[in-house]
Structure of Type I MADS box transcription factor:
Amino acid sequence: MATKRLRDTRNYSEDIRNSILDRRVTSLFKKAEELSILCDIEVAIIIFRPGSIQPIAWKSASLAQDVLTRYLSCEANERIKFFVKHETYLQRKAEKKEKQISKLEKMNEEKEMELLFNQLVEGKSINELDARQMKGLLKVCAAKTAKINERKEQLKQPLNPQSNNENVTLSASPMGDLFNDSWFIETMATLGDGSGTESAPTKGNDTNVGDNGHSKDLD
């Protein structure tokens, strides 16, 4: 909302000044009421008209006096805790704007140096650059080198070992149980060296092996 230019009413007649004052006071009271409703706060306005003993108060003289009395009853440190001078307020606004401008300038410079770096890769001569551009390119090169070194360190790290779930699945298989069985291992070792084995009976033989390992005649 654009601010209106204030008029100098010192050369106006008293009736015109009083008329302007009445309109401005009405508008001010309306804004005060909106502020008290929207923010749920107590607002008191006291205006002293030149040459008048009775002040103009909102909402009423008694309510305004009550708010003013409670305000004055507070300690000075409590009253000025959130008090901000207009000069301090403007200074804070200016500092905030300066930070925003500095941030935008930094972003623009980074984009400019990145574009300039790409142009050099495509074949632009480095002799065309000034001192500021050279310093910016050095920062870009340093940042890219740091990223490359970080990526190299990540590639040097070993792969993650197999999880415990995979080991459990392997040992739960039937073949894995056989490999862990001592009887199966001893039996396979015995068969491997030929000891403890007997020739298997042929189809035409009339002998058979008993339960005790000795042969017996078949009837």
Q: What stands out?
A: Residues 92-155 form one domain. The beta strands are 45-47, 56-58, 207-209, 215-217.
